[in-house]
Structure formats: C-alpha cells, structure tokens
Amino acid sequence: MGFLQKNETNEDKAILLATLIVVLLAVLIRIHHLDFESLFMDELRQVSYYPHSLSQIVTDAATQQQPPLDYWIGHFFSKLSYSDFMVRLPAALFGVGSILLMMLLIAKVTNWPTAWGAGIILAVLPYHIYFSQHARPYSIAIFFTLATLYTLHLVITCSRNLWIYVLLFLATTTCFLYSRTLAPLVTVATLTAIFLFVIVLSFTKDRQYLAGIKDRFILALFSVLISLVFYFPVLNKILSPGRRYADSPQEFQISTIYNGLKSLSMTPIWESYVTQLEPLGIIILPFILIAPFLAWRSGTLKRNPVLSIIILLIPTVSLINIAIFQAKTSLPFRP
Predict the structure, then answer these.
(1) Cβ atoms of 137 and 66 closer than 8 Å
(2) What is the Cα–Cα distance from 186 to 256, expressed in whole angstroms?
(3) Which of 109, 151, 205, 277 could join 169 in a cystine, given CB atoms 3.0 to 4.6 angstroms apart?
(4) For residues 172, 175, 176 and 182, what is the CA-based torsion angle, rounded to 10 degrees?
(5) Alpha carbon 289 to chain centroid distance?
(6) Prediction pTM value
(7) Among 305, 310, 321, which residue's Cα sits nearest to residue 268?
(8) Whole-angstrom distance, CA of residue 93 vs CA of residue 91
C-alpha cells in the first residue's frame, strides 16, 4: 500500500514538473524581447488611456469598440511602470496562462502526454507569441475562452463544491465578455443555445445519460444569462456610438447575422486557420477532421460532454463571427 502511495506521489511530482517546464518555456519565449519593438499605433492609443480613471476608461475603450477589462488591468500595471515592457506584460501573462489552462483542460478529457504536446506546440506557435507581446486585447480573450471552458468542465463534472465552481464559471464568463467585443459575445451566445439544446435533449428517452447532468447545464445556462445581463450596459455603450458591428444590440442579434450569411465566404476562415497554425495546420488537419468521429465511435463524447460542446462550439462560432464581420465591415478579416 505504501509503495502505491509513493508511486502516486512520484507520478504527481512528475506531472507537476513536466507542466512547469512547458510553462517556463512559454514564459521565456514571451518575455524575451517583449519591449524590443516600439508600441504600434493601436497600442499607443490603448496605453494612452491607462492614466485615466476606471470609469473614464470604460468610455475610452468604447471608442475603440472594445470592453474595458484589458484597459483596466493595464491601468494598474502602468502604475508600477509606464514602460513598454510593463504595459505589454499583462498580454504575456495571459498568453502563458492560456497555455496552462489548455493543458489542464486537455488533461481532463484525454491525458497528460497529449496535454504537454499541445502545450509545447502553443508555446512555440508564432501567432500565439505575437498575440502575447502586444498591449491589445488579444491574449486576454484567448485566456478567458479557455477559462470559461475549463470552469464549465468543473461545473459539469464536480462531485462537491458545486456552487463554488458555478460562481467561478459566472466570473470567467463575465470576464470573457469584458475582454473583447465580437468573438466572446458570439461564443457566449452560442453556448447559451447549446445549453438549451442539451437541456431539451436530456428529456428524450434515448438521451438518458444526460439526465444526470441536466441540472448542471441549467445552472450553466443561468450563469451565462446573468453574465450577459452584467455585460449589456457596456455592450450598449460600445455599439451605440461606434456602429461598427450593429446599429443596436437588437440588430446585432438578428439582421446583422442574416446579412452576413447572405454573403458568407469560407475563405477568411481557412486563411485564419492556416495563418495561425502555419504549415503545422496542414499536417494536423486530417486528425482534426477525423477526431470528432473517433470520439463519437469510442463513446468519449458521452463521457466528456464538454468535449462535445467544444467540437460543436468552434465551427459554429467561426461561422457566426465571420458572418457578422463581413456584414458590418469592409475591412479584411484578421485571424
């Protein structure tokens, strides 16, 4: 018995050590030359708002069609130092944090070797490094995407401390909405629809395996609805003067998507995928396409409902996101 406990402890230490090595690699890459290049125009504009009051920063961020969370965080970091390095440091930290969260989430639904492999890929991926070295709300949105999915997994799978995880899910979802304008809102709205679909599906006879977690999805649904209520005043402030994505929140939900779907092109989505993953994206594409089928055939999706949500969420959000972007802007779609 003592031998088994010792082995388990050693295994835990090995997992912790390997995870820390990947995180350290990510830290070193993102901190290296963090202030090597001067701030570019959008960074300069964002950073210029940092000395303002927290309430004024909400209005300032709205002029860039962004919610204020990244600006608020920059406000406090700039009090330590107003240098290029310090104002970019939050982005680097969120970039590293997103790698850690992704490994934790993957380990939950697969295994640690897979999680470490994915973590190493993301740690050295040029586009993720780029996101993590600019004082703009890029890496913060990636971080809270993963934080939302990870806390959702905790809500659905936990055996105790449920309300703590529900509050964490509510907090991460709200922060996600406050991190960036378009993609988080589309993601949370899509999650709301998925939760409703799962709840309805749980009442059917051939989906009895969902009955046991139906209450968890109901809690998750109420959490995202509350987070949307918290976010609505800021959303209205962003949309009303900017009119970049919609003339009003109502139009954002209905006619904007309809107009975008009429002229929907898949090319920007493909270009976005290839740009972010570079040649690696071509190599792993067949595995990405076959993975959902294999997960369904092996019963993994039933055992990991959050994995099912992720598989459904990513393409759906991509399509809606590009539809809205193409409907309301004449700019080229950026990954």
Answers:
(1) yes
(2) 12
(3) 151
(4) 160
(5) 21
(6) 0.89
(7) 321
(8) 5
